[in-house]
Amino acid sequence: MIAIIDYGAGNIKSLQFTLSKLNISNTLTQDKTLIKESKAIILPGVGSFQDAMRELRDAGLDEIIKQEVTNGKPILGICLGMQLFYQSSKEGGHSEGLGLLTGQIERIPSTVKVPHMGWNSLNVIQENDITANLPVEPLVYFVHSYYANKVDGNDVIANCSYGTEIPVLVQKNNIIGMQFHPEKSSDIGIQLLTNFKEMYL
User: Fold this and answer.
1) Which helix (H) or strand (E) holds 27?
2) Alpha helix ranges (H) inside 46-185
3) Which band of pLDDT confidence, cut at 50, 70 and 90, is reported for residue 8?
4) What distance in Å separates the CA atoms of residue 61 and residue 64, rounded to the nearest whole number?
5) How many structural domains comprise the chain?
6) What is the dihedral of CA 182, 29, 9, 132, to 10 degrees?
7) Mean pLDDT, residues 2-18
8) CA–CA gap between residue 91 and residue 86 (Å, rounded)
9) What is the mean pLDDT of residues 61-72?
10) Chain CA centroid to CA 2, Å
11) Which domain range does residue 124 map to?
């Protein structure tokens, strides 16, 4: 069972529908016992970094996430969920993140239309299990105004170009982040979630 962290992020139904389609048992929860008993965690995200971290802290979910990840449990962060893995964000003023990955969340440059919304291609720079069976320059769906900057290049599996080079698929050991929405990315998203399932479940 995958525990999807419930912190009022919204828009979870399409993710749950896609997981169920792949026969991945899942539950939306704040229950710390269920999170500890789960095989993996998904941290979804729609909204602002500052509000999300406040919700996680108020519910004590930030500590249980860090504890479980430190113990080796796989975690997948989607969109804002991936951004929350990093040390800090400039969105709405300075906010501390979970600190699971090195980097800072900054606004996409104003040289392009913000938010970055719609389809864009992944430039895969490290082949590994999470990128198995993907075509060349696969298209995925984005909705975001901020991105991870000053990251550890060793963690970046794929990036995309939108005003700057944006890390959009990252991995460090049992931590995987997707800046895009796999549940809205058609066959490519299905393949990525299938890869996650085969890696960890």
Assistant:
1) strand 26-29
2) 49-58, 61-70, 80-83
3) confident
4) 5
5) 1
6) -10
7) 90
8) 13
9) 98
10) 14
11) 2-200
